[in-house]
Amino acid sequence: MLIISGWLTGFGKSGQVHQDDLEGYLQKTDLEFLSNYFKESKTSISIQYRRKYADGFKQVAMDMIPADDYSTENQTLFLYVKNIDI
Predict the structure, then answer these.
(1) Is the pLDDT of residue 4 over 70?
(2) What's 17's DSSP letter?
């Protein structure tokens, strides 16, 4: 999970996440936050934010779903991002 958390942080700070959504995005994609969240709950987490596209920012939802064999030693997640700005 360390790798994805670092990538998500870099993605947010690069201007790809709307400035008004950045603080919440960074909090919910922080390694410590995610580790604690999935340690306490094996359910998915959904984060909504505005993402930069060629024609402006659009609302998206990012879902992180732990694998069936998720554990402290095996922090495997499935990550889906979908455009919900219809």
Answers:
(1) yes
(2) B
